[in-house]
């Protein structure tokens, strides 16, 4: 029995066919006007507005922060949950959002590959936190996980958790590289066992060809549910990458409500790593107000992709 099989014997395997049947039903839900409006606004508050490019500048980060604080020129549209930037940009973001509800998140631990010495990865985390990061998004060593070195992977997550101090930790599994739903469930439990209340598990870096899907989201939120029922520890969830439309976001929220309940319908328990999603949400909110759809380019774009 491999190390992953041993872990799955403890936490249970995944019925892949059952998962696909379940998530297919989420795409058939129809939200009426009041519920839809609530869901659209809620999704805005759950976005980690992100820029992760080699050409990022303090000016670009400032534009990102301004949009996070005021997504559109309407008082009834809420701010996003956070802005997510590289560690070198944390101090610039913090200057803009300090004292507001918007958090500063930073990717760390040699994002997106995770292929750097642990000492280097931990120093990157500490630097980001010292510069004002409220949240750290780390990547696990997928190669070590797939080789069955689960103690190593868990030990590294624990050390990153320690380096975060009071900051929230989001552990990125990079689900497309884990290959199977069973592996995603195993990695979720591996991470959750060393996380704290309010820490996150996250699907993806947004830097691979396959990112968040309703299927891998479902596997992870069911793992969160099962872990909570066993331990009482409330782990949060962040699907990232590939969620570009308001319709998709609402489907993910239906999945959360029906699997985890209303307690997880909050940006302290659920986030979207999907910056391009924001403009479609704003477009839908404007349509709810006016009855007419605006062109996509009618909304300023502080960033692209992810």
TrEMBL record:
GO terms for biological process: carbohydrate catabolic process; deoxyribonucleotide catabolic process. InterPro entries: Aldolase_TIM (IPR013785), DeoC (IPR011343), DeoC/FbaB/LacD_aldolase (IPR002915). The keyword Lyase applies. Keywords: Lyase, Schiff base. It comes from the Bacteria. One of its GO terms (molecular function) is deoxyribose-phosphate aldolase activity. The gene is deoC. Pathway: Carbohydrate degradation; 2-deoxy-D-ribose 1-phosphate degradation; D-glyceraldehyde 3-phosphate and acetaldehyde from 2-deoxy-alpha-D-ribose 1-phosphate: step 2/2. Belongs to the DeoC/FbaB aldolase family. DeoC type 2 subfamily. SMART domains: DeoC. Its EC number is 4.1.2.4. This is Deoxyribose-phosphate aldolase. It comes from Phragmitibacter flavus. The keyword Ribosomal protein does not apply. GO terms for cellular component: cytoplasm. It catalyses: 2-deoxy-D-ribose 5-phosphate = D-glyceraldehyde 3-phosphate + acetaldehyde.
